[in-house]
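Reminder to self: keep the SMILES exactly as supplied, no canonicalising. Ligand is zinc ion.
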Amino acid sequence: MCCISRCLPGLPLLLLALLLPRAVLAEDWCAAIGKRLKSVPAAQCRALGLQPAAARSQQGRALMWRDLPPPAKKLASRQPGGRAPRVLVIGGIHGDELTSAALVFRWLPWMQEGEATHYHWRVIPVANPDGLLAGKPTRVNANGVDLNRNFATPDWHKDAHAYWQRKTERDPRRYPGKAASSEPETRWLESEIGQFRPDVIVSVHAPYGLLDYDGPARQPQRFGQLTLSRLGVYPGSLGNYGGVHKNVPVVTIELPHANAMPPAREQRAIWADMLNWLRRNIVARG
Ligand SMILES: [Zn+2]
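Structure tokens returned for the bound complex:
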């Protein structure tokens, strides 16, 4: 199988990404994912039907997503308006949290089974591919920006740098960027939220081993072994942007380890508890 950079050495990655057809981009992306994530072999990644968005990462990598609407007969029976609740699932916004991407890959087939088919899922397993696929994975993107501090929350220009300087002592792992939405990955996530209009957002991280929540619905108490522990609201974070600014519930799942997946039983428990919470608390809005 052809790896882009091996077949055409010397060309900048961004130029290659613009020249190559989408199918080749997806092929190469899965090859790279298969090398980085032990639990996601390249062939399995390709079988998941992810497609590249029109947008690209800072280094020109594909930004991959999958749309999973419910089967038509379930759509009609689910809601009076005939619309299933929309759930946006995002992994790997911090590139060095490998399990946060791997768990979303694991969930993709589960979204096509049983009760999960009552929902319209949109899935972004790797929101920060440059970070995940860097020689040594990085939390930040290729511009050194923490994407989870770069969302255009109200008063970002006033708060984000002040917070970074005072509260994090200019921690480079938490740099919010030169301006709100300065990064292509953030702009793409914001446009997905705007176009898809999710009824809930699930964002997977690691390694704090807890659940966090922002937004209007009843907060979840427990998914598997993870229990609710509010971390607070940060300038430019997805929880702030979605949960506070856009009034969309945002559940943040913090897995206990960035490099070791939870045991299979715990993966299933988190999934089952999340479906229970969705069924009781999330309806299609508008
Ligand atoms: Zn994180």
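Points to follow up:
The longest strand covers residues 62-68.
The CA atoms of residues 59 and 144 lie 12 Å apart.
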